[in-house]
């Protein structure tokens, strides 16, 4: 037996907003959902790029400490060779990681975010995650749970 979901209020006495944007057709919901998913992957890529930036920067700091330790241990010549070969080296031709991060942000990330938001404004009345909201509504309804309420 499929029990209709109950309605739980948000604590202020009103029911939570229906985020399914019922007037939108499925094709638009699916297309904008894919665009939002693409942005989520861009966000993950950006996070990985920032990790790369921080990991490379930390390695450079540790390299500096290793150079100091080599000198203190009496290996001035070796320290000098390592310094000339690695210290302050570009990770890409002409660039350190902060420059790569900035270029990614300026040339790809920010335009992607702005475009996704513009499409949402045009097609979903600015609502985010409509595809997921419909999935939640469908699954909670099938399970007999409150559509937007608190709890399991």
Kindly summarize this structure in a few lines.
The chain has 152 residues and is mostly helical. The protein is built from 4 helices and no strands.
Distance between the termini: 19 Å
Structural class: mainly alpha
Secondary structure tally, helices = 4
Following the backbone from N to C, one meets helices and strands in this order, namely: HHHH
Q: In angstroms, what is the radius of gyration?
A: 26 Å
Strand percentage: under 5%
Task: Round the mean pLDDT to the nearest integer and report it.
Answer: 90
Shape: elongated
- Main beta sheet: none
As residue ranges, the low-confidence spans are 1-9
**Number of DSSP strand runs:** 0
Helix proportion of residues, in percent? Answer: 55-70%
Account of the protein in words:
Helix content is 64%, strand content 0%. 5% of the residues are buried. With 152 residues, the chain is mostly helical. Helix 1 runs antiparallel to helix 3 (97-123). The chain is built from four helices and no strands. It is elongated and about 75 Å long.
Helices and strands, with pairings:
Layout: H1 26-72, H2 76-86, H3 97-123, H4 130-142
Helix pairs in contact: 1-2, 1-3
């Amino acid at each position: 037996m499929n029990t209709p979901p109950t309605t739980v209020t948000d604590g202020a006495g009103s029911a939570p907003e229906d985020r399914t944007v019922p007037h939108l057709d499925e094709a638009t919901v699916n297309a904008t959902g894919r665009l939002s998913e693409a942005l989520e992957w861009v966000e993950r890529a950006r996070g990985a790029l920032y990790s790369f930036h921080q990991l490379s920067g930390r390695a450079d700091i540790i390299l500096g400490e290793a150079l100091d330790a080599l000198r203190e241990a009496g290996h001035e010549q070796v320290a000098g060779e390592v310094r000339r070969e690695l210290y302050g080296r570009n990770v890409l031709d002409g660039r350190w990681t902060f420059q790569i991060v900035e270029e990614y942000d300026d040339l790809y990330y920010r335009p992607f975010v702005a475009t996704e938001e513009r499409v949402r404004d045009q097609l979903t009345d600015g609502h985010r995650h409509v595809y997921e909201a419909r999935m939640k509504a469908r699954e909670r309804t099938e399970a007999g749970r409150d559509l937007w309420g608190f709890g399991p």
